[in-house]
Design brief:
The complex is a heterotrimer of chains A (326), B (343) and C (314). With 326 residues, chain A is of the alpha/beta class. Helices cover 29% and strands 22% of the residues of chain A. Chain A contains ten helices and twelve strands. Chain A is globular, with a radius of gyration of 21 Å. Helices cover 35% and strands 21% of the residues of chain B. In chain B, the strands form two sheets. An eight-stranded mixed sheet of chain B has the order 6-7-8-3-9-10-12-11, with helices on both faces. In chain B, helix 3 packs across helix 4, helix 3 runs parallel beside helix 6 and helix 4 packs across helix 6. Chain C has a single domain, classed as MetI-like (MetI-like fold). Chain C is built from 13 helices and no strands. The chains are: A alpha/beta (326), B alpha/beta (343), C mainly alpha (314). The interface between A and B is large, with 46 and 43 residues.
Chain lengths: 326, 343, 314
């Protein structure tokens, strides 16, 4: 793999699950790339498909998470993850690709010490000796600013923030190339959130891994992600460099979303949010999926579903920009 | 200024945890005193575990205080003996809950809960008048047309709509003060503003006061007149919203504000060595509960629990170190002092 | 001032038609139920069986060819077109006996099952709602009854009234069969009790009894119905069993007493196979009907148990 090849290429990925009312496409033809060491934030509200996308990327779909990949490819370091077997996946998991789930603080086994859980992970994915395992465990704990004496602690003896950081430490046991995180900070308070994200950035700088950070809170990642992907109703609405998307949002949903965050220090203006609710994915609206709620809607929007077009380095799915395809 | 509607004095609530023998005391709320006026929106800001939700339940009479008192329109609510008086209080001070998926009974149509509320608190209305009242409050919270929405079941409504039903239920009592316990934290971001605007509008149109409990400081700034900051079961800062949020005096408030992400502003200086360790509220010792994380800590902080003291007009801060100096350099001076403390 | 100025009139929240993320539902609870039953194979099978037996129980006179007690035929006949299942040792038509026997068996099932369910609801939900000492006491009673070997106890009690009639059977079975349901209902009531709408009702001033009956119970209907079906199943089997061993009224017309008489006359040994087996088959079928519907209600009330619909490949 050369330096310039993307670490992860997602091509035309679609995920659907069955329901009483027919198939529901939760992720619709999603296309993006991730470079080595890049921090990509995926934001969206409930029902946008970001969590399903994450499960698909990590091949974690299947009971109890409903859904199947029905099309597309996930090429991670040159291999298509969609076609790999469980055994092949196991060699990738944790070593090259690690996952930190939502409320990971509750994913720790309450009856095992931190040390035991790290040992489990190490033994499952490598042939490390007990000594090596212990040394590595201490190392990763130090990386996340936890005193290694906590190896012998049980999860309930650590605070929520510490548990979250311990999960991140576990994810780094094999210094993977890519760490995928699903709302890792939502259960923490604002101070702990800020501290955790800064820590992740520092680790990234030190170890060079890429991060996919899924969240519903755009402002959280505004200063930390390299690129930002906004999802709506299973599709990518906008994807571009973070500062560019924040300073000049192209998609009406993105600007609506940005508007919906009251400011702490700026002028205190009256905001309006976005009227309506996300569409029912079993029967998505005709044309653009955002059209029922869009303040700039036109007749064409309801007829044709727009494609992603590139506008000055920012990809956007909106009829407004169809004429300006680069 | 507005009339005082509700006043708490030394409000305290402790819980015994652990066994009978080796039990400990959890200090959920300690010695909290504040007022809420008519047509006023007061935000109670704090992290989880700070005691803010317990205060909501104390005001709603779900819990009884361990000590201290709550006065509503001058009368202590602990003395409400008769059922009629207690009913009247719960009509004057209803609560809106956080989880829109759990706060409405799924077995009945939306009108049911509202109609029961009207029936219990406004017995003088006839059945037709009750029905009209249900439709009126649904319209008032933006669920238009009220007549149609009254017939819907909760599962036919989105999260934001259900939360509005929660407000409608509260409005049906013709309340004076609505306690809103994190009413928007479980809603999507784009829906939150609508509900926050609703609270403002209800205050303007119906003259209802709100105690808005939240951990989201930015939303507190958006609608509140005054802000109360809680930390470790104590009230640590109080004052007009703009004042407290732009010129915070308590070190915890400063820390909180520095950590709030604001995409429109450049990344602020913040003390990232603070990893957000929660305060000790189980059998806590004397002294300031923030001292372990405070950059301005002095010797007194370890032994004397700071009380709220007046620092300027309508401003109170519970800190030995904070000064009344209202100049804009306040924060900068504190920053300098902090940096020199580091060195 | 931090409060934003209101210059625009109140914008209405959008109607549900713009699409909540949940699927659009039917309009009434009854239609929902019917749809759930029709789509669930177990429920369909169970309800058809139940319907069949109910019809037999209501119109035995019109359906059965003969008076079940009439000893008018030759005893010990084998199956024929006149007597689908032959005749008994006393010359009675077995088919007619089966048909007439449905009524008693179904009655006991519904009555005893109903009684057991009512007690289970009272005990289970009260224990959950009242908590504390009341809960402790009620749970203790429930556990004791649960652990006691029911059948021997039932025999002992039924033996006090020799030849127990339908009423005694119903009371005995109902009074001893409620503990399993009570535990289940208590568990569910505990989890519902913590939902906010219960607090909302209390805080708005409802009395405790109102909250239990009108706020808590309506959300538990699926489990209560499933509980009833389970209790009915148990009652069918237990009643037949008691009558078989002779504790029932031998002159009663029910499947259990048929088994009793068949046993007394060594029906199997003398080749009167159908007389010996058919009542048991009927008991099993009625029991199966209740069991199937029980599974179905579990699935209806807990979507997690439903089989996942197959995904069509594009």
């Amino acid at each position: 793999m050369t330096e310039h090849e993307p670490l992860l290429e997602v091509r035309d990925l679609s995920v659907a699950y069955g329901s009483d009312r027919g198939p529901v496409v939760a992720v619709d033809h999603v296309d993006f790339e991730l470079a080595r060491g890049e921090f990509l934030a995926i934001v969206g509200e409930s029902g946008c498909g970001k969590s399903t996308l994450l499960f698909a990327l990590t091949r974690l779909l299947g009971p109890p998470f409903s859904g199947e990949i029905i099309g597309g490819q996930i090429i991670f370091r040159g291999r298509n993850m969609v076609t790999l077997s469980e055994r092949q996946l196991r060699s990738i998991r944790w070593r090259e690709l690690a996952v930190v789930m939502q409320s990971a603080m509750n994913a720790l086994n309450p009856v095992l010490t931190v040390e035991a859980q790290m040992r489990d992970a190490c033994k499952a994915h490598s042939e490390m000796s007990d000594d090596e395992i212990r040394r590595r465990s201490e190392e990763v704990l130090r990386l996340v600013a936890i005193d290694p004496m906590h190896l012998r602690s049980y999860p309930h003896q650590l605070s929520g923030g510490m548990r979250q950081r311990a999960m991140i430490a576990m994810a780094l046991l094999f210094t993977p190339e890519l760490v995928v995180m699903d709302e890792p900070t939502s259960a923490l308070d604002v101070v702990a959130q800020r501290s955790l994200i800064v820590q992740i950035k520092e680790l990234q700088a030190k170890l060079g891994f890429a991060v996919i950070f899924v969240t519903h809170d755009m402002s959280l990642v505004s200063h930390f992600s390299d690129r930002l992907m906004v999802m709506y109703a299973g599709q990518i609405a906008e994807l571009g460099k973070t500062r560019q998307v924040f300073d000049k949002p192209l998609h009406p949903y993105t600007s609506g979303l940005l508007e919906a965050f009251p400011s702490i220090h700026g002028p205190n203006l009256r905001l309006t949010g976005i009227p309506g609710s996300p569409p029912n994915l079993a029967r998505p609206p005709a044309g653009c999926r955002f059209s029922p709620r869009c303040p700039h809607v036109t007749a064409i929007c309801r007829e044709r579903e727009p494609h992603l077009v590139d506008v000055e380095g920012d990809a956007v799915r909106c009829v407004l920009y169809n004429g300006r395809a680069a | 200024m507005s009339d005082v509607l509700l006043r708490t004095e030394g409000l305290t609530r402790h819980f015994r945890i652990g066994g009978l023998v080796s039990g400990q005391t959890l200090h959920a709320v300690d010695d909290v005193s504040f007022t809420i006026g008519r047509s006023e929106i007061v935000a109670l800001v704090g992290e989880s575990g700070s005691g803010k939700s317990t205060i909501a339940r104390l005001l709603a009479r779900v819990y009884r205080p361990t000590s201290g008192e709550i006065y509503f329109e001058g009368r202590p609510i602990s003395r409400l003996r008769r059922r009629r008086q207690r009913l009247a209080y719960s009509g004057d001070v209803p609560m809106v809950f956080q989880d829109p998926y759990s706060s409405i009974n799924p077995a009945y149509r939306v009108a049911h809960g509202i109609a029961r509320g009207v029936k219990l608190h406004r017995r003088d209305l006839s059945r037709a008048e009750r029905r009209r009242e249900v439709e009126r409050v649904l319209d008032a919270v933006g669920l238009v047309p009220g007549r149609e929405l009254a017939r819907k079941f909760p599962y036919e409504l989105s999260g934001g709509q259900r939360q509005r039903v929660g407000f409608a239920q509260a409005l049906a009592f013709r309340p004076k003060l609505i306690i809103a316990d994190e009413p928007v934290s479980m809603l999507d971001v784009s829906i939150r503003i609508g509900v926050l605007n609703l609270m403002s509008e209800l205050r303007e149109r119906e003259g209802v006061s709100f105690l808005y409990i939240t951990h989201d400081v930015a939303s507190a700034r958006y609608i509140a007149d005054r802000v109360l900051v809680m930390y470790g079961a104590h009230l640590v800062e109080e004052g007009p919203a703009e004042e407290v949020l732009q010129r915070p005096k308590h070190p915890y408030t400063q820390l909180l504000l520095s950590a709030v992400p604001d995409p429109r502003a450049p990344l602020g200086i913040s003390d990232t060595s603070d990893v957000g360790e929660p305060p000790k509220v189980v059998d806590p010792p004397e002294g300031c509960r923030f001292r372990a994380r405070c950059p301005y800590r002095i010797a007194t902080c370890d032994t004397v629990t700071p009380l709220l003291r007046e620092l300027g007009t309508a401003r109170r801060v519970a800190c030995h170190v904070a000064t009344a100096d209202d100049s804009a350099d306040d924060f900068a001076r504190l920053e300098t002092r902090r940096r020199s403390a580091e060195v | 001032m931090s409060a934003p100025a209101i210059t625009t009139p109140l914008a209405p929240a959008p109607a549900a038609g713009s699409g909540p993320t949940e699927p659009q539902p039917r309009t009434t609870v009854g239609a929902n139920l019917l749809r759930a039953v029709l789509h669930n194979r177990k429920a369909m099978a169970g309800s058809l069986l139940l319907l069949f037996f109910t019809v037999l129980a209501i119109f035995p006179g019109q359906i059965a060819p003969d008076d079940p007690q009439a000893e008018i035929y030759l005893p010990g006949l084998g199956p024929s077109s006149h007597h689908w299942f032959g005749t008994t040792s006393y010359g009675q038509d077995v088919l007619s006996q089966l048909i007439w026997g449905t009524r008693q068996s179904l009655l006991v099932a519904v009555a005893a099952g109903g009684l057991a369910t009512v007690v289970a609801v009272l005990v289970g939900v009260s224990a959950a709602y009242l908590g504390g000492l009341a809960d402790g006491f009620l749970s203790l009673v429930t556990d004791v009854i649960l652990v006691i070997p029911i059948f021997p106890l039932v025999i002992v009690i039924a033996a006090y009234e020799k030849n127990a009639g339908l009423l005694t059977l119903t009371i005995v079975l109902g009074a001893l069969g409620w503990s399993y349901g009570a535990r289940q209902l208590r568990a569910q009531a505990l989890s519902i009790r913590n939902r906010d709408f219960v607090d909302v009702a209390r805080v708005r001033g409802e009395r405790r009894l109102y909250v239990i009956v009108f706020e808590l119970l309506p959300t538990m209907t699926s489990l209560i119905v499933a509980s009833f079906l389970g209790a009915a199943l148990y009652a069918v089997l237990a009643a037949a069993g008691l009558q078989f061993i002779g504790l029932g009224d031998p002159n009663a017309q029910s499947w259990g007493t048929m088994l009793y008489w068949a046993q007394n006359n060594e029906a199997l040994g003398s080749g009167l196979v159908y007389w010996a087996i058919m009542p048991g088959v009927c008991v099993a079928l009625l029991g199966a009907a209740f069991a199937l519907m029980n599974y179905a209600f579990d699935e209806i009330s807990n979507p997690a148990l439903r089989p996942l619909p197959k995904l069509q490949r594009r």
